[in-house]
Design goal:
This protein has helices spanning 25-35, 37-52, 124-142, 159-170, 182-192, 205-208, 254-259, 267-273, 288-293, 314-331, 350-357, 359-366; strands at 5-7, 11-13, 19-23, 64-67, 72-79, 83-91, 105-111, 117-122, 149-153, 174-178, 198-201, 214-217, 224-228, 238-241, 250-252, 261-264, 286-287, 306-309, 335-338. It is an alpha/beta fold. The chain has two domains: 5-125 and 316-364, ornithine cyclodeaminase, domain 1; 145-313, NAD(P)-binding Rossmann-like Domain (Rossmann fold), CATH 3.40.50. Strands 11-10-9-12-14-18-16-17 form an eight-stranded parallel β-sheet. Strand 10 (174-178), helix 5 and strand 11 (198-201) form a beta-alpha-beta unit. Helix 1 (25-35) crosses helix 2 (37-52) and helix 11 (350-357) packs across helix 12. The longest helix is centred in the middle third of the chain and has 19 residues, at 124-142.
């Protein structure tokens, strides 16, 4: 553990203004395990819900993307008027063929008043956790009461996080898994063994959805695909559509959208990237924050088909960074990163180079 002390994660005490707390991948893993994965997911969902309840205070804009035939690199910024946060994230489905992650990310949380970063963090693992926490939070407001069985179609890097979040927030105990790559399904089932699930590995998407109260689609291919067709979705099902998250990339047949009540994070972004890019630009949707605050109705009855068209939004990353910041003082799981210039005189930046060239002379002058 790092021995530096911090106060509420906002300012490093006993160190120069050059030092910024940095949460590495190793520290993130240790932090998650120290808190407990399910407790972490529940707490993180609480932070996301808290920020969704104050939706109006945030700056909101679709993420800024650089798209190519191979994938996308995106920046996701937001601010609540006091703090500023952004995430750098990529999505390159073909990376796995070269032993690389499809998604990698890091993020920064800063003081809006002085512009100084107060946290730099890995967000590859954290994004998987916040995506799962957001999915389960939405389902808690939209799925049928008593739901206990979920189909997960697409058993890659996100699948275990989704399963554990739905267990932590909704009590899901039965999982039906399917992936075109049977090895991915075996991996998912193996990783979740001993976590309290009843797991069935299926041979098709059609088999996976049988008896499921919730259908989670979380595939990675960057293409317009039909993972679930209308005849596969029975009355009362809640669909958690996670994989469709960029222009031209969808997972659900359009007929499902036509008969489902659709809930989104931020409409202007989801129109571009989500399942609803298949629909007319004026097709009615409801933003999740409206359901959380009671401004709109979520599930009306047990027969209603609900769809959470999840693409990920910057406020969720802001919430995740805020949550991590608040864990640092208690856990010490970070390191101090010499990130910012901190001259003796704020007007004398060049003097730092002069003193670095002759450190002994500078030390003697100060003695």
């Amino acid at each position: 553990m790092n021995t530096m002390q911090i106060t509420t994660g906002r300012r490093v005490a006993g160190a120069g203004l050059n030092i910024v707390p940095f949460v590495s991948v190793d520290h993130m893993m240790k932090l998650v395990l120290a808190i407990g994965i399910e407790r972490f997911l529940k707490d993180l969902a609480g932070y996301i819900e808290e920020d969704f309840r104050r939706w109006d205070v945030f700056d909101k804009k679709p993420r800024i993307g650089a798209h190519s035939a191979e994938g996308v690199i995106e920046l996701m910024p937001t601010s609540d008027g006091e703090l500023y946060g952004f995430k750098y994230v990529n999505g390159h489905p073909k990376n796995t063929r070269a032993g690389r992650q499809t998604v990698t990310a890091f993020g920064v949380l800063s003081n809006l008043g002085n512009g100084y970063p107060m946290l730099l963090s890995e967000m590859t693992i954290l994004t998987a956790l916040r995506t799962a926490a957001t999915s389960a939070l939405a389902a808690r407001h939209l799925a049928r009461e008593g739901a206990d069985c979920m189909a997960i179609i697409g058993n890659g890097a996100q699948s275990e996080f989704q399963a554990l979040a739905f267990k932590a927030l909704l009590g899901i105990r039965k999982l039906r898994l399917f992936d075109l790559d049977a090895g991915a399904t075996r991996k998912c089932a193996r990783n979740l063994a001993g976590e309290g699930f009843e797991i069935v590995s299926c041979q098709s998407a059609q088999e996976a959805v049988l008896g499921a109260d919730i259908i989670t689609t979380v595939t990675a291919d960057k293409q317009r695909a039909t993972i679930v067709t209308d005849n596969m979705v029975g009355a009362g099902v809640h669909i958690n559509a996670v994989g469709g998250d960029s222009p031209g990339k969808t997972e659900l047949h359009r007929d499902i959208l036509a008969r489902a009540d659709i809930f989104v994070e931020y409409t202007p972004q989801t129109r571009i990237e989500g399942e609803i890019q298949q629909l007319a630009s004026d097709h009615p949707v409801t933003e999740l924050w409206q359901v959380i605050t009671g401004a709109a109705v979520g599930r009306r009855d047990r027969q209603q088909v609900t769809l959470f068209d999840s693409v990920g939004f910057a406020i969720e990353d802001f919430s995740a960074l805020r949550y991590i910041r608040d864990q640092l003082a208690r856990t010490g799981l970070y390191q101090g990163l010499d990130l910012l210039a901190d001259p003796d005189d704020p007007r004398d930046l060049f003097g730092m180079l002069v003193r670095a060239r002759n450190p002994a002379q500078h030390a003697a002058a100060r003695a």
